Amino acid sequence: MTGKVFTVRGLLTWSVLAVSGCATVSPRPVRTDDIPALRERAGRTPDDGNLHFLLASALASSAQCDEAVIAARRGRALIPNDPTGPIIIGQCLEEAGEYDAALNLYVSFLAEHGDVPGAQGVEGRRVVALQLKARATAREAVQNEQGLAPAEPETVGVLPFIVDGDPNYQALSVGLAHMLTTDLALLRRFPLVERVQLDALLQELELAPELIDPATAARTGRLMRASRMVLGTVSVPRDAQARLGGNIVLETGELVEPFSTEGELDDILSMEKSLAIRIAENLGYQLSDAERQRILENQPGSLTAFLAFSRGLLSESLGDFEAAAAFFGEAVRADPQYGEAQVKLRTAAGVGMGQAQVAGLTYTPEAGAGTSAGFDAVANTLASSILDIASHQPERATIDAGTGATAVDLVPEDTQILPLLDAVITIIITISR
In b/e form, how buried is each residue of 264-276, taking b as 16+ CB within 10 angstroms? Predict the structure, then answer.
């Protein structure tokens, strides 16, 4: 019997099998003290891309990113469709503050190999890098506030809504702002400030939504180079009708014709549509019937789904992707046709997957080669992550490994639990011939 090392592209694990009847050695996580042996092995077998990735992982974990990038690039040259390389290289670029380079790397890999198992982890790193870049940009804007260029006259930003009333609905602050932004984006008329940028700036300013007033809204707009900021309010009394309102705040702090509407809480999504149309008109744009219809159709099937989605957005903005994935899963369970929540769920789950892909690399010192972490390491790590993500309704969490493990959906049938097993099965492939 002979053995071979086989790269599982999506889960980035390796397996060394018994050779000529020799006993195998239990693998363990790769450590920094493995670097000398890995260097020696990689030098003697330069065509083994797996060894280069193991060396890169060990170097990166010991803060030797320059050498880690070199090793990871050698691995990529040999196994270009393996996500290990871009994840290690990208994180080193992020640590160096080279966010654009990291983002370009992630986007390039996803464009070429977005359907391979494990690409979801690269997408997760892309989202994290976007947040890091936005925070760095916000910090720079605040530090150089006096020297910023004038705001763009057509650019619009939508601030988190100020929520008054029942604290159970606090997440509507970000949810309604997100929905209003996507509604305005459907018109393709206004350059819009991205939500990740606004979130980063508000965190940098330590400015909670309830502290935003016309003056701070105008300042936020200047820092984002947006001449018009939408400041929304939502009132959710326990025993009264809900009220939704909005103002357009100019860079001078002046308000443009406030608008408000009220109704039953269950109708708040329809109320948001009325607000979106009115805001667009106050911005000087007359909607066509087709545009109105697109805005009206841009909503989930229930308030329950939207609330869960909003809580996911809030967790995502705070960097808690595990909680975000759980909430996005709840949103999809409440509305299986909620496409935007499905996308967000895949992305949030990908953040944890990307971390596990590199953390799960293991090494057999005696053999001097990479080996599969098996169910003892990567499988347990990712299986735990999957179950954590689906902790509220684990029986309905599935990962579609049949399409390259790049889609995560929640389905109502308990009989569709098999994809959870697929997720673990794809973690380890051991080939013995």
Answer: ebebbbebbbbbb
CB 385 within 8 A of CB 124: no
Split at pLDDT 50, 70, 90, the class of 360 is low
Q: Are residues 17 and 108 in the same domain?
A: yes
Q: DSSP of 196-224, one letter per residue?
A: HHHHHHHHHTT--GGG--HHHHHHHHHHT
CATH number, domain containing residue 236: 3.40.50.10070
Question: What pLDDT score does 3 carry?
Answer: 31
- Same domain for 120 and 163, yes or no, is no
Distance CA 198, CA 239 (A): 33
The residues, any chain, with a CB within 8 Å of residue 74's CB and separated by 6 or more, are 42, 46, 49, 52
Residues 200-216 pLDDT 10s: 999 999 988 878 888 89
pTM for this structure? 0.73
Question: What mean pLDDT value characterizes the chain?
Answer: 80
- For residues 300-313, give the mean pLDDT: 96
Q: pLDDT tens digits, residue range 282-298?
A: 898 889 999 999 999 99
The domain containing residue 26 runs over which residues? 1-148+322-433
What residues contact residue 380 under an 8 Å CB cut-off, 6+ apart?
none
Average the pLDDT over 14-19 and give the result.
Answer: 31
Cβ partners under 8 Å of residue 63, min gap 6: none
Determine, yes or no, domain membership for 310.
Answer: no
**CA atoms 249, 225, 191, 97: torsion sign:** negative
313 in any annotated domain: no
Q: How many CB atoms lie within 10 A of CB 40?
A: 11
